[in-house]
């Protein structure tokens, strides 16, 4: 084919190059434009609803630093996007990230250490929450935004009807489940769900588990430790004897079970009123909240399920300004009040948990006017959580292995699932090349 | 390469014009097809090396891995398991779906049928429902606690099978594919049935051939090429099944995160964060699909050219 001349090839190349040059210009202009003149421009990737309104408050008070909120994705999807953007050095200045995603982001070099910029902020948060942003070291990779202390939610009316008492220990919890089965064989106190690893992680934290820790240059995985094994045996035992259900949460069947009173209780976090509102709208006002049952009488601890933080990226050209915004967003009373109102979050800052913004109980729990006062008491007792660089792998393995165990309905299967969970997590770390302590 | 003489500008323009017209398509092909495939190949022979805790700057670096990723992809029991599951699923889906599609096409093509266009539309309609939505709808119908079928079975005092687990899960999953795919395949076969010359059937009828015999002896052999085509599409779609199991997964304990090969690729890439291993698995899957399709095509080509006798 002699007719493909150099000229047409050159033209084609020119078009291609031109196109890349154009896109390059297009995406560059965002972050750095205001560096020399005018206000500092910051972009913030977040998914909390109404975050743009909260940022507007900041923008009105701080004309020198303008924050633009962009809703790219949420949760794990956003983690993938942030890592991709960090590789291309086209990341935003600030990101919202769930606590368990922080080590993954740090290990991909996506987050900046802002320990110097946020000195003195630490005391505004519960130690168990704060620890998640430092990964247990000296660096600070994010500021806590919201937290999800675990609690016990139950149908007050049905508990009275069946003569059940609200359990304060896990032993009592098991007794309550058995008592209910005896009185109403078709009903169940709750279910063991294998499709959300966060709840299981939170329950293990309460028992004292530290799933990822590090010493020197080595990660130590403690998933198959005494604390987590205690939690596994407890729930596995309840499923095996048929005292509770074994089907996953967040399915149409689960919604129906809550809405019709087939399930009487749910171990969940402070954000449960929102979920219950959509899952079980007919039972509004019939639920009540109590502290999470304890392993031993007189103890006072809870774990956390969910919650997110604000982090500054390693690509940010304005780390100091970004850290200033993050501090304002998560500690300033006005900002926190706006976050509660616009985004419906439960703030991690302890002062805000008892502030005016949370004076009124959520609508769904209108029958329990002191909902947030009690929640703040419980939040103080949050046990520390420790996350590692492959939480996602462990979470997926949890769903697969504990799904199998829940299906098998035997205690042995639950024990085997926990062993497999530990092995899979360690094997993945080793395969990736992380230092792993034996 | 000979340079055209200077006076021949016009003919030069005419001769290059086809390439000019090809350019947009070629560019798009390069940018959105060849380039991503090349990148996936490049990724599949690399890996990330991590030092110590893997925290902070410079702790991760991309290094050459050779065929290591391919080795571990092929040796991975999860991958083999997912491939076997999908083959089992395909063994159910493909014959049932194509059998139904052929049956419906022949019925619609027969002379005595009434309400033809309505029936055609009704059979085709499920194909227009996106796979994810179909899976959600069927998922609701399968879940014992909310399913109307289970409600009726309970009223009638009959046993209620759990369709979201074990063996019945394959039936449940196949059912979604058959429901959604039959219409499309039926249209393909039906269209080629309508294109057949009618003289052949008239001659057969004069010879005393029944409708059934016409269908079996004349129509089916003559539409064999479209059967092969639909068979192909179905095999490829089966190997790439992703939407249905992914959508049903949160509803049950019975579907692991690596149920199908593509779910394994997705899982490696986006929850495990290992795009290198995922690329290698994807390449293996693509090669397997290619080899399988090509082998089947060779076999069926030989058959159809002999059988159709055209």
UniProtKB/TrEMBL annotation, chain A:
Q: Which domain of life is it from?
A: Bacteria
Q: Which InterPro entries match?
A: Bact_solute-bd_prot1, SBP, TAT_signal
Keyword entries, A-Z? Cell membrane, Lipoprotein, Membrane, Palmitate, Signal
Signal peptide position in this chain?
Answer: 1-24
SUPFAM superfamilies to which the protein is assigned, alphabetical: Periplasmic binding protein-like II
Name of the molecule in the record = Sugar ABC transporter substrate-binding protein
Q: Which organism is it from?
A: Streptomyces hydrogenans
Mind giving the lineage of the organism this protein is from?
Answer: Bacteria, Bacillati, Actinomycetota, Actinomycetes, Kitasatosporales
From TrEMBL, chain B:
Q: How does it sit in the membrane?
A: Multi-pass membrane protein
Under the heading InterPro entries, the entry gives: ABC_transporter_permease (IPR051393), MetI-like (IPR000515), MetI-like_sf (IPR035906)
**What is the species listed in this Swiss-Prot or TrEMBL entry?**
Streptomyces hydrogenans
**What is this protein's record name?**
ABC transporter permease
- What keywords does the record list, in alphabetical order? Cell membrane, Membrane, Transmembrane, Transmembrane helix, Transport
User: Which residues does the UniProt record annotate as the domain ABC transmembrane type-1?
Assistant: 83-296
Q: Where are the transmembrane segments?
A: 21-42, 86-109, 121-143, 169-190, 222-242, 275-297
**Pfam family example for this protein?**
BPD_transp_1
Gene3D superfamilies reported in the protein's UniProt record: MetI-like (1.10.3720.10)
User: Does this UniProt record's set of keywords contain RNA-binding?
Assistant: no
Subcellular compartments: Cell membrane
Q: Which family does it belong to?
A: Belongs to the binding-protein-dependent transport system permease family.
